[in-house]
Amino acid sequence: MLNENELIALKSELQTPKKIVIVSHRNPDGDAIGSSLGLLHFLKELKHEVCFISPNEYPDFLAWMPNVSNTIIFEKETDKANELLKSSDYIFTLDFNALHRTGEQMEKALQSLTIPMIMIDHHQEPDSYPLYTFSETSYGSTCEMIYDFINALGFNQLINKEIATCLYVGITTDSGSFRFPKTTAKTHTCVADLISKGINNSEIHNLLFDNASYSRLQLLGRALQNLTLLKEYKASYITLSQEELDTYKYKKGDTEGIVNYGLSLEGINMTAIFIENKEEGIIKISFRSQGNVDVNQFARKYFNGGGHINAAGGKSFLSLEETVKQFIAILAEEKK
After folding, report:
1. pLDDT at 336 over 80
2. How far apart are CA 312 and CA 286, in angstroms?
3. d(CA 172, CA 204)
4. Domains of the chain
5. CA geometry: angle 105, 106, 107, nearest 5 deg
6. pLDDT score at 55
7. Which of 28, 48, 66, 190 is most buried by its number of CB atoms within 10 A?
């Protein structure tokens, strides 16, 4: 948490209306969108002029969330987004700790500003760009951090159903529905309070996990057919080519959570999914692990990425086939 002097200073600043912009990372997930919208609704309760800018489109499975339709997409509304950034009093950067996570175009825009920034994030090795930094890797989600941030400011009474809904989404998705190791007693206490604010947790779960399109399930089936075991390395991987994505009418968010299937296999403590993106000219990679297998360092060292010990992301500029070969070669080398 921010230290006491920082909290006092920030609370003092927030007592009078400000122009505030909230920014998430590129390819936002449930935690990025949930924390951003949760904070947005909270700051509006304090009578601030607030907007949320996402570097690119949010996934379809989050399109039902409160006020998400008012999200400004930097790639589509660049001029408007830049004007809002330049005229703001504060910028909150949520669920990322390095400006390059917003993408090359938006990174340059943020780097050109002298406006004070506030980071709230749970990833390892934060950069030093913010004026205020709330960075703590023990949290399972940024949404839980936003909940504690609101409480530390003394405003729990302002957490309404909309705020609680947004925060619950991020906690649920980033915790793997409360099964990942960073789900603590404190997490459940937080969730109990959010439920007491009037959210329909059962309906939220249905909206997040039980509203898949037919083509999305077909894509999942293809991904599972592509699942490959590497027993000698206690690893597995899944591939999805651009052709396969196109065949099954891929929409943003359709591959969310697929990587976890590779970790559910007996005797496997590390898995990856390699997804071809012809438009960006990259292979997008997600890693998951169990126990002490550190995929954050693995992604940082070999695949231009990073994240958490047990969940990280990266990218490759090689072909899909060459990327998989590189992955297997690295596992072989690491085993020596």
Report:
1. no
2. 6
3. 9
4. 4-208 (3.90.1640.10), 214-335 (3.10.310.30)
5. 95
6. 98
7. 28
